[in-house]
Design goal:
By secondary structure, the protein is α/β, with parallel strands linked by helices. Helices cover about 35% and strands about 15% of the residues. The protein has 2 domains: about 15-40 and about 265-359, Aspartate Aminotransferase, domain 1; about 40-260, Type I PLP-dependent aspartate aminotransferase-like (Major domain) (Aspartate Aminotransferase, domain 2). The protein is built from 13 helices and 12 strands. A 7-stranded mixed β-sheet has the order 2-8-7-6-5-3-4, sandwiched between helices. The chain has a 3-stranded antiparallel β-sheet with strand order 9-12-11, with helices on one face. It has a two-stranded parallel ribbon with strand order 1-10. A hairpin with an 8-residue loop joins β11 (about 325-330) and β12 (about 335-340). α4 packs parallel to α5. The longest helix has 24 residues, at about 265-290. Bound molecules: pyridoxal-5'-phosphate. Pyridoxal-5'-phosphate binds near residues 155 and 218.
Length: about 350
């Protein structure tokens, strides 16, 4: 007889992971918005030193990392939450805020982890379609806020569409969300956003105790394999609540040490952003040459509809045969679209050549 699982297990969607983790080295992994650059030597060394003390549990209050983040962002440690990746903070937020009868509001297509929050808690997900530019429609989102709303999530820049809203739009929206409703602005890609200084949103924390800026070491810092993310919050309540619903040791010693060291190398962050922006320009022009108009990217990846009635899964398979792994839009909410992470210059050329070939 089969094991009887809880009702939740039938509701929770299975996260659409990228394939190709078992492929060889000669593959361009452009499916998961990872950094093409390995971690800095100093970051690897810091993680290795930390592993030498792994007979001890990690610091459950993540105090050194919080201190480093506090210095970098000017937010007090007590208003910072750490996570085993920022997804850990998201899932904990769902647990801490949601329950049957509650609602959460987010745009769609957006990050594929958000649907999990409603399914896991029994809350109702209110999804709001993106506008014609594939950007968040904040007016439409504001009208979906009701007495039952507990959580609103805005992904800026948005995954999978790569588009971003200007700071002024975010600031105006924050004003419209009542103070008792948590508002998470998921800024996983904010460093790549050239519309505004990525740190401008930090100013909103002083005035809005319900605001949570969710950030990660997974993207521009190139540490997704370590699993560490963080939230900069407008009050101490949110960090306290997400810590309450999790096991005490969610962030391991190596991840904490790597993150602290990575923060010391802001020059490397700036260089990575510069390389991503060069890739953005090259890939956009290469796509244009193929008659494709990608969405206006402010991230480290592009998003575009395939021309005509080309079959998306055939293109994904054709690219994979040529050693280029990308993400099909169907699993992300838009059949006929592709999401492609910027890689190294060589990988980007390989992608464009392969796409031209397949089409
Ligand atoms: C990649 C990504 C994250 C980061 O997830 P981690 O758990 O920190 O690796 C968060 N939000 C969005 C929208 C993302 O695309």
């Amino acid at each position: 007889m089969a094991i009887e699982f809880s009702e939740r297990i039938r509701r929770i969607p299975v996260y659409p992971t990228a394939g190709a983790y078992a492929l060889g080295d000669d593959v361009a992994m452009l499916a998961s918005n990872e950094s093409p650059d390995p971690p800095l030597d100093a970051v690897v060394a810091a993680a290795q030193r930390a592993v030498a003390g792994a007979n001890r549990y990690p610091d459950p209050s993540n105090s050194e990392l919080k201190r480093a983040l506090s210095n970098r962002y000017g937010v007090p440690s007590a208003r910072i939450a750490i996570g085993n990746g920022s997804c850990d903070v998201l899932l904990a937020a769902g647990e801490a805020l949601l329950e049957p009868g509650a609602e959460l509001v987010y745009a769609w297509p957006s990050f594929s982890v958000y649907p999990h929050l409603a399914a896991a808690s029994g809350a109702r997900a209110i999804t709001v379609a993106l506008d014609d530019e594939q950007c968040h429609d904040l007016d439409a989102m504001a009208t979906e806020i009701t007495a039952a709303t507990r959580l609103v999530i805005v992904c800026n820049p948005n995954n999978p569409t790569s588009t971003a809203l200007a700071f002024a739009d975010i600031a105006a929206f924050v004003e419209r969300v009542p103070r008792h409703i948590a508002l998470i602005v998921d800024e996983a890609y904010c460093e790549f956003n050239l519309l505004d200084d990525p740190d401008t949103t930090l100013d909103l924390l002083a005035k809005h105790s319900n605001l949570v800026l969710l950030r990660t070491f997974s993207k521009v810092y190139g540490l997704c394999g370590m699993r560490v993310g963080f939230a900069l919050c407008g009050s101490e309540d949110f960090p306290r609540a997400v810590d309450q619903v999790r096991q005490p040791f969610f962030c391991n010693v190596a991840a904490q040490a790597a993150a602290v060291e990575a923060l010391r190398h802001q020059d490397a962050v700036a260089e990575r952003v510069e390389r991503a922006v060069v890739a953005r320009v090259e890939i956009e022009s290469g796509l244009n040459d193929l008659g494709i108009e990608p969405a206006a990217s402010q991230a480290n990846f592009c998003w575009f509809d395939l021309p005509g009635d080309v079959d998306e899964s055939e293109v994904v398979a054709g690219l994979a045969e040529r050693g280029v792994i990308v993400r099909a839009g169907g699993a992300l909410g838009r059949p006929g679209a592709l999401r492609v992470t910027y890689g190294t210059p060589t990988q980007n050329v390989r992608f464009l050549d392969a796409l031209g070939d397949v089409l």
